[in-house]
């Protein structure tokens, strides 16, 4: 309780927010580096073939593909919230299985239409290694907005007025 008051005080909140931003930047950079390493490994092991990139189907427009990627990212992040929330915990140790099944099903369902990336790092760095950047905005705008919006209905609609996982009011 005292720690949460310390964090919420105006004197210390800017320092904690700064560390949250640094943590988020660290995760983003880590994902980008991991994606580069995976693409380089793929390029080295398959010498005579090209590195596959995410592409949208000819029948789809960029807005539709971005919306599809946003819905996929929303569903994946919402599943992660639901599988890891101690307030519900119906999954118990099956939470990672639910997350993996959701990610696999969505990639299979949306792959032919928009690639089913759900993660900007996957699409962008494979495009960097391959040198093809067509429709990359689809893989940034949709997933970022979809993932950002996923937390709102979970805390506001599913658990209105209850304490959130971090201990502060929702």
From TrEMBL:
Topological type in the membrane: Multi-pass membrane protein
**Transmembrane feature ranges:** 20-44, 56-81, 101-125, 137-154
UniProt-annotated location(s): Membrane
Q: Name one GO cellular component term.
A: membrane
* Gene3D superfamilies xref list: Glycerol uptake facilitator protein
Q: What are the alphabetically sorted keywords of the record?
A: Membrane, Transmembrane, Transmembrane helix, Transport
Transport in keyword set: yes
Alphabetically, the GO molecular function entries are: water channel activity
Its chief place of residence is membrane
> Which Pfam families did the record assign?
MIP
**Family, per entry:** Belongs to the MIP/aquaporin (TC 1.A.8) family.
Please report the name of this protein according to its UniProt entry.
Probable aquaporin TIP5-1
The organism named in the record is Durio zibethinus (Durian)
Species classification: Eukaryota, Viridiplantae, Streptophyta, Embryophyta, Tracheophyta
